[in-house]
Amino acid sequence: MTEPRQISDEDFQKFREFFYRKTGILFEDSKRYFVDKRLLDRMEATGSETFRAYFTTLRFQASGEELQSLINAMTVNETYFFREEYQFECLVKSMLEDLVARRATDSKPLRIWSVPSSSGEEPYGIAIYLLEHWPRINQLDVEIISSDIDTDILAQARRGRYSPRAVQHLPAPLLKKYFVRVGEFYQIDDSLREAVQFTRANVTDPADMRLHRHFDVIFCRNLLIYFDDLSRKRTAESFYDALNPGGFICLGHSESMSRISSLFQVRKFPEAIVYQKPWEAR
């Protein structure tokens, strides 16, 4: 009779260290049940009878396919449209106006990066907010790029189909204007799908981060809370390099860049507190 698959304390520690090195995400002991359940699911899906066999595949598979599948299973993607809307208001009333005032003769596009993308509610929400509340959108070129480490959720974001819960905070006129009801779901307008570029990125991987540069605003909300202090600091330094001089970064309401890095200046706008890369920086 075959023994049931199990994750021992030693296995959990080995996996936790490995996953941290690959993603910057550190699972606390309190997440043990969550981690074990997903590891056992992947072991069953790959036909691995023991953790040792599965871990060998995870570490040495040349394609990295199983590692990506596991990352997809381990990452949390819980969000909705217009979450923490006050930062969108700050974007159109303060941050973009500040950037435009300093870049009066610069014809380069304004570039906004939303990371993590999750299923697309944030980048599409930014696009809708700009169209509805920023008159300059008809005069200036704006690019919206959105990235995530989870390739499954990126595919979902590209499809742009949402549950009633995801759109529950959208005003009814906007829901009618930008979505079509398809059965029990809401399909976002094709023009918005085409307006957002989705890419895979691991923000703790220097190679991935070198591919993402020259942004004017970064939205990175409720991601750094999953990292330890060292990973937070490294990610903040990568964001600093990814921003143009004068560029802004927006964190979640419970996060503070001041506790992570001294590279950024605190900007207190009427709508929100955000963080800015100094104009004189390179």
Automatic annotation (TrEMBL):
SUPFAM superfamilies: Chemotaxis receptor methyltransferase CheR, N-terminal domain (SSF47757), S-adenosyl-L-methionine-dependent methyltransferases (SSF53335). It comes from the Bacteria. InterPro entries: Bact_Chemotaxis_MeTrfase, Chemotaxis_MeTrfase_CheR, CheR_C, CheR_MeTrfase, CheR_N, CheR_N_sf, SAM-dependent_MTases_sf. GO terms for biological process: methylation. S-adenosyl-L-methionine binds at N77, T79, R83, E122, D148, R221, N222. It catalyses: L-glutamyl-[protein] + S-adenosyl-L-methionine = [protein]-L-glutamate 5-O-methyl ester + S-adenosyl-L-homocysteine. SMART domains: MeTrc. Its EC number is 2.1.1.80. Residues 1-280 form the CheR-type methyltransferase domain. Methylation of the membrane-bound methyl-accepting chemotaxis proteins (MCP) to form gamma-glutamyl methyl ester residues in MCP. This is Chemotaxis protein methyltransferase.
